[in-house]
From TrEMBL:
The keyword Secreted does not apply. The chain crosses the membrane at residues 26-46, 66-85, 106-129. The lineage of its organism: Bacteria, Bacillati, Actinomycetota, Actinomycetes, Micrococcales. This is Succinate dehydrogenase cytochrome b556 small membrane subunit. Keywords: Heme, Iron, Membrane, Metal-binding, Transmembrane, Transmembrane helix.
Length: 150
């Protein structure tokens, strides 16, 4: 039977050198959560409350928003923070509940790979989005007002 030492008894602490990634992951979750609340509520306010609400969200609305570098950076921050926040949360769940080290490593690799792919694709979409595509307006609906007529 094992016993627990008295709370104030001296103990030999094993010092590990290097970075405490669990501590930094915990701090990231708190900081990114606060920033994400601001970003998401700002996003919802602009898209749902101001203007005509949900009815106004179409290709022209998104093209108009992403024509501004401010909204590109806003959406990019929201994308990156949310995906990294979610992947870190999944990593924590995998660490807590995976039954074997090999399974945990495979699952963490899958979470990392999927988050990396989604971050890369989302970033490409935000920065390579062409608000004035070379297709007829009939195929997309209404084009933004700043696009030249075709």
């Amino acid at each position: 039977m094992s016993t627990v030492d008295a709370p104030r008894s001296p103990y030999a602490r094993t010092q590990r050198s290097g970075t405490n990634w669990e501590k930094w992951g915990w701090m990231y979750m708190r900081a990114s959560g606060v920033v994400l609340v601001v970003l998401i509520f700002g996003h919802l306010f602009v898209n749902m409350v101001s203007g005509e609400g949900v009815r106004a969200i179409d290709f022209a609305f998104v093209a108009g928003k992403w024509a501004s570098p401010f909204w590109q950076v806003w959406d990019l921050l929201m994308l990156w923070l949310a995906l990294i926040h979610g992947a870190n949360g999944m990593r924590t769940i995998i660490n807590d509940y995976s039954s074997s080290p090999v399974l945990g490593k495979v699952l963490r690799g899958a979470v990392f790979a999927s988050a990396a792919v989604l971050i890369i694709l989302g970033t490409l979409v935000i920065f390579t989005f062409d608000p004035c595509p070379s297709v007829s307006p009939d195929q997309l609906g209404m084009l933004p007002s700043f696009c030249p007529p075709q």
